[in-house]
Amino acid sequence: MNQDGSMALFQYWNRLRGRRPAPLRTEIEPAEIKQLLADTFILERGDHGETAFRLAGTRMCAIYGKELKGHLFPSLWARKDTQAINRLVDHVSKDNAVCVIAYEGATRDSRINNFEMILLPLAGKGERPRFLGTVQPLMKPFWLGADPIVENKIGSFHFVNPEEMVAAPLRSTINSPSLSPDGELMAAETEQGRRIRHLVVYQGGRAG
Known about the structure:
3 helices, globular
């Protein structure tokens, strides 16, 4: 996690969950993260596995040039990355994993900016799976919010072990898996990683 906004949301989520795998959706209090709301979103997974935006902050909607509520989450991504994104969401849901995605966003005019996204699982009693997240631009060029991002392309991703991040500083580095040309998730060779089905979960980062 390289962006302060990502770490701040993670720390809030981590404090709420205590010793549980994930906090309850009903425990999220917008007033407690008001400085992050413009960049924050909530996803909901439907009965057929589709993932859509339940809510999205105003600054995030401006980045993409539209109201994101109701839009399918994979629709923001390049076609070659949609399968990978669906698998990442599936892993976050089934294993209460914390996923950090570094990606490139492109406009119709071929302007490029890099972003960091974090996906955090939320628990609920008999509810559809939901996820809390934030999008943080690595830079803020003058055109961001005026020239909409129309396509995301995954650069890298990694999974964080919350138990090892409780007292971590704002910067951490770990090896990341990569994507094959057809969008399949591939494991990076590492002594810290452990395989869960088709993914590798990494045991957190060390202080950078």
